[in-house]
């Protein structure tokens, strides 16, 4: 009997990752030779797209999607999701090109999918999760931000901004991917929150996140502020709905009690 992970696509967005791309693709192929890889390149000026085409010519499980310009990480993943959903993949994964997500740990995510999970997040902040080569300030900012997000939404997850993930195709098919927020990394929170709201089985597995060794991070600090502002709005709406539902339930119970009392009289 086949498992969902038997038809897995790993999506790797790239922009100026000429040196990193062959390394990460090689590691994926070695760690999980049965999975396919889709490189989504945003017209990298350093030649990453051409290098991706060469890798695809060398390895039949590697595919390339070229985009016309630098459209951002969210847009790259949405394009990759749509490409995969148009084909027969049952599991679609997110993975960074810079080596921060270890392909050698992909089996942890896929095992959870095969165990029944709908969305699996590789978490830095649950027991067993680790972060390597980050300055203390960045770790505190990320850990604190994720704690705030979890409390604001009541999501019960420790690392909703994490980008190492595996989705069953049904999760992505149930979402309007064009509506995803594109404020920094907030789209990762958006995807996880939508899955939770839709009652999908969302789980976390511990992974080791390693800061890139080649190239520079493409994020600046502004995404933290933008993300937390957006999440605060969602949290207020969510809590407002919770209060409304609680009030309606209390009203129903009071009404029922009054009716019972009137019948007894």
From TrEMBL:
This is dolichyl-phosphate beta-D-mannosyltransferase. Its EC number is 2.4.1.83. Residues 10-174 form the Glycosyltransferase 2-like domain. It comes from Corynebacterium spheniscorum. It is an enzyme of class 2 (transferase). One of its GO terms (biological process) is glycolipid biosynthetic process. Keywords: Glycosyltransferase, Transferase. Belongs to the glycosyltransferase 2 family. One of its GO terms (molecular function) is dolichyl-phosphate beta-D-mannosyltransferase activity. SUPFAM superfamilies: Nucleotide-diphospho-sugar transferases. It holds the Pfam family Glycos_transf_2. InterPro entries: DPM1-like, Glyco_trans_2-like, Nucleotide-diphossugar_trans. It catalyses: a di-trans,poly-cis-dolichyl phosphate + GDP-alpha-D-mannose = a di-trans,poly-cis-dolichyl beta-D-mannosyl phosphate + GDP. One of its GO terms (cellular component) is membrane.
